[in-house]
Write a structure and sequence with these properties.
alpha+beta; four-stranded antiparallel β-sheet; 11 strands; 34% helix
């Protein structure tokens, strides 16, 4: 009976943790939501990270003499942004920053369908990190650089098959193959995003340090789940065992004391 109780406690805790991790904040807005409310400042919390964006990001590039303001996404970040941040790897910080930068640029566009991206079967996109003679490359999903592409006239009309880049249902597992220690970002590095199709090639240069700034807006939140979950389970099981032991001792003491103790007395007559 005790083992069943312990197993049930473990299952309940595991299910609640799974729900917390798999849930995460959702990045999709209701179509009926007023435009004004979409631009409000939002702080989002996740099982591992919290998103507290500033009003703007001010960055000084190598060739600039003054700081330049860059747009920040103030909605609830879609799940794929957290996936990049959690997975880490060689390009984790840069891809997290690129995704947030792209969302910020898209949110500043007043065009109604700016957060939709029409996928193409012949397109391939990549991120190049260039630092002097050193060069690294990784493949990326094209939608996380959608705001850097030149729009065709047809893109100004709604496309039912277009991808909503703020959706939490986007799967990026095929693009999460990067492993190893994170790239040490410096101000001398240049990040170049490429969009290749059968019709031509587009590229945009972004300071890697700027992408790092965007990634830093998503910070670790509290103790990791792999630390507090085992500790919580151990504490719960220990409390349960202690309660069972106390109840057993009380029951044993009660049984040792006879209920109908014979009364022995002495009667003297004077």
């Amino acid at each position: 009976m005790k083992s069943l109780h312990i197993i049930s406690i473990f299952l309940l805790t595991f299910i609640s943790v799974r729900a917390k991790i798999s849930g995460g904040p959702r990045g999709r807005f209701d179509k009926n939501m007023p435009t004004k409310s979409r631009n409000q400042h939002v702080s989002a919390h996740h099982a591992h990270y919290s998103y507290h964006p500033p009003s703007e990001i001010h960055f000084l590039c190598r060739q600039c003499h003054n700081f330049v303001s860059y747009p920040v996404y103030h909605g609830l970040p879609p799940t794929y942004v957290y996936k990049y941040r959690e997975r880490g790897g060689r390009f984790g910080d840069l891809l997290t920053g690129l995704a947030l930068y792209n969302l910020g640029r898209a949110s500043m566009d007043h065009w109604e369908y700016t957060h939709f991206y029409s996928l193409r079967q012949d397109e391939k996109c990549s991120l190049h990190v260039i630092n002097g003679k050193h060069f690294e490359e990784t493949q990326i999903p094209c939608f996380i650089m959608s705001s850097f592409m030149e729009r065709s006239p047809e893109s100004h009309f709604p496309d039912p098959a277009a991808l909503d880049i703020t959706s939490s249902q986007i799967d990026i597992k095929p693009f999460m193959n990067s492993t190893g220690s994170p790239i040490k970002v410096t101000r001398d590095q240049e990040c170049v995003v490429w969009h290749n199709t059968s019709m031509g090639t587009e590229k945009s240069e972004i300071p890697c340090a700027l992408l790092k700034e965007y990634a830093e807006t998503m910070k670790p939140s509290g103790i990791p789940v792999y630390v507090w979950l085992p500790v919580t389970l151990i504490v719960v099981v220990a409390i349960y065992v202690c309660c069972q032991c106390c109840c057993y001792k009380k029951k044993t003491v009660k049984e040792e004391v006879p209920l109908n103790r014979p009364i022995v007395g002495y009667c003297s007559q004077y």
